[in-house]
Amino acid sequence: MARKMKKIILASGSPRRKQLLELAEIPFEVEVSDIDESYPEGLRPAEIAIHIASNKARAVQQKIDMGKNSSLTILAADTVVVLDNEIIGKPLNRQNAIEILSKLSGKIHKVITGVCILNGFDEKIFSEETEVAFHELTLAQIEHYIDNYKPYDKAGAYAIQEWIGAIGIKSIKGDFYNVMGLPVSRVVQELATQHN
User: Fold this and answer.
1) What three-state secondary structure class fits 43?
2) d(Cα 24, Cα 21) in Å, to the nearest integer?
3) Active-site pick, 78, 84, 122, 153
4) What is the dihedral of CA 35, 41, 46, 49, to 10 degrees?
5) Which residue has better confidence, 7 or 162?
6) Fewer CB within a 10 Å sphere, N or C end of the chain?
7) Percent of the chain surpassing pLDDT 90
């Protein structure tokens, strides 16, 4: 029988992250705080993801005044897609989404999620990296996906659990759920050590 976990605060409005915590049976509530997602120059991709995740967690901590709730645990994450050392963000529009998926077509890219678990003054940060290889995609496939699934809120302009993942992904090396936006098994392990 699974050990009952304490309720956490998810500092993210992402439907995928909510779905993954539900899948892992982690009780949570959502509290989102809009932050500036810029970062200092010279950081490596994993450091960028951790920097943004940490800022998200701290913004939510300030918002809910942890003075009274110092036992609350906040979980924040940020996912970046990296191709040839270039960070690929969320598409700006349809044309940009076509360009992004055309770039990823036939190549291997990395998906890196930075995670911050904040409990009072105790901060645990880590990142998880997954390699994803795409088959060569046709323009018709790319346009079909964009027009039907509208992946404008997704880094790299795709979601692995959607149609494009089923038909376009050749292989993945690492945690599948990390590509969805949260390395959920690692998060469960880290939460368990924090709650012991």
Assistant:
1) coil
2) 5
3) 78
4) 10
5) 162
6) N
7) 80
Give the tens place of pLDDT for each residue, 153-193.
999 999 999 999 999 999 999 999 999 999 999 999 999 88
Q: What pLDDT was estimated at residue 66?
A: 60
The reply to whether 65 belongs to the active site is no
Domain positions in the chain are 8-195
Beta-carbon contacts of residue 150 (< 8 Å; ≥ 6 apart): none
Cα–Cα distance for residue pair 6/27, rounded to 1 Å: 7
Single-letter code of the amino acid located at 106 = G
Q: Is 148 exposed, middle or buried (0-12, 13-18, 19+ CB in 10 A)?
A: exposed
Arch. (CATH architecture) of 8-195? Alpha-Beta Complex (3.90)
Looking at residue 93, its amino acid is N
